[in-house]
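User: My advisor, Dr. K., asked me to get a structural model of this assembly before our group meeting. I'm new to this, so sorry if the format is off. These are the inputs:
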Amino acid sequence: MADKEKLLEVKDLKKYFKVSRNDTLKAVDGVSFDIYKGETLGLVGESGCGKSTTGRTIIRLYEPTAGQVVFDGKDIAGSLGTSGKKELTRRMQMIFQDPYASLNPRMMVNDIIAEGLDIHGLVKSKKERLERVYDLLETVGLNKEHASRYPHEFSGGQRQRIGIARALAVEPDFIIADEPISALDVSIQAQVVNLLQELQEKRGLTYLFIAHDLSMVKHISDRVGVMYLGNMAELATSDELYDHPLHPYTQALLSAIPVADPEIERSRERIILKGDVPSPINPPSGCRFRTRCPFAKAVCAEIRPNWHEVEEGHWVACHLHDDSVTMG
Amino acid sequence: MMGKLLEVKNLQVQFDIFGAHVQAVRGVTFELNKGETLAIVGESGSGKSVTSKALMGLIPNPPGKIKEGQIVFEGKDLVANTEKDWMKLRGKDISMIFQDPMTALNPTMKVGKQIMEGLILHQHMSKSQARERAIDLLRRVGIPNPEKRVEEYPHQFSGGMRQRVVIAIALACNPKVLIADEPTTALDVTIQAQILDLMRDIQKDTGTAIILITHDLGVVANMAQRVAVMYGGKIVETGTLDEIFYNPKHPYTWGLLSSMPKLHAKTDKLQAIPGTPPDLSNPPKGCPFAPRCPYAMKVCVDQMPAYTHLSETQKAACWLQDERAPKVEPPKTIGVGGE
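Assistant: The format is fine. Below is the predicted structure of the whole assembly, which you can bring to the meeting.
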């Protein structure tokens, strides 16, 4: 793991939104992680934890407030200019959550898929363009006839395949998939996840897979990061995270997922968290999770926990697992 | 033995839209016993929500209509009900929790008043009595500081808190049947755990029977005693919780169970169900799952299979259960209990 090549390094990334004259919403507040070449990093958390904002800030749909994003050795968080952004989107693509809203209803499927090819001048003739579109359609499990249709003629699962074909068109190295299966039915979800995994094997793609469905994230990811209220709470390989969660939030999150197995469900002890996620406009001091944490101590309100590596590859931000802090 | 509370017999619901006749529910039969939780699972378009709406008299007519069938509640067929009859029943004997707590509440009305409505209408309480009861209910569903919150509007509540309010409204008149249509789908997992816990707790106290409509098999395993699996407007298999999870007989149930990743075990590749659900404006003649079924035979396309009774509680509508059919083993992933 250690000698794997880093494709993306996110260092202390922050994204604030000004919501009114006096209030700032700190959607992402100092998040650091690496993504290695060819792996899938899963990012999980509840709504409002900043996982989507993290993805969107990396690909520069949002301008980062502070921090660094190093993609293949180059900082892409600072000013990029038009050509820099163009180069970025050639190598980095996104798949969106809602297959109904993310495809332009007035464009034919071949124009949707080929838009990236046109922008980056990757095809020389109309014939080549169409051939590429046919290839891509086949890759994602659709067929030629679909090229001249409009999005409304497709089901949700098929639309998501079109979204994947569009992302693949410019042959990117890195794909950010933001809840790509949440809007789909269970049987269709498996189709799309299998497709994403096949594509990764064939093309050596690297994924950032953002989702709230922890069992699906475990299935697809090599490593998983858990976010809470704009901070990263814990990050480890998916087996390590699910077998030995350290952060109380990760533990609660894992125990909250209902498992499709009646025997396990009958015998399970659940940690039920009290209350709701606090507002990111005025988040709790110190550790953000302390207001719902069953183990919170005085120190948790005062000092923000360090993001540190407890064991090789297992990162956590919690005073319970930091020897340098004495718990009150 | 528990008594039957509600019996649905051969229910058929059709919607006439754009010149097409969409047959959303095509002959559904099931019963609900006192105090139990029955889960109806299925994907979008399987007819599970339409079935539950029919039980509440909430099928908009036009375009929808109940073509055939009976809904027998306490010995009386509800299909013949007039709107006036329904109004006496809804919220009193049968009530409903909706999927989206953001839209289920009236944004212009204080939550207290929304809870009080049913109490004043059905139980003829005075305003002050109803207000007291509303505060009690809010406290019961775990809303802190209910004396103050009863005067607040829905937008002042978070998603999870709104769903608690919706549950308080549904429970106000101690209904005998509670229909929960995807009650936690719009909520985060930690909030989902809170709400499921609350529903189970309330059921223990009041003995309300719950019909739980969901697509999440995890929620089913957590809540239900019996399960009905719907596909293409029909119930394809029904049984107790353990029968459906550990000894399912219908290939669609197999498909559903193996297309989900397991949290407690390794899964190499998910078993996806190829294809898409049927178009119910032109429903298939035979088994609705036949076009996607890896075991489909000629007869499956031509003729709808009858139910085969596999035990006192389990039955499946599948030609594989016919004695002339070849023996088919379920996928390896099925029937493995525990860790």
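One thing worth pointing out at the meeting: Residues 56 and 226 of chain B are 21 Å apart (CA to CA).

User: Perfect, thanks a lot.
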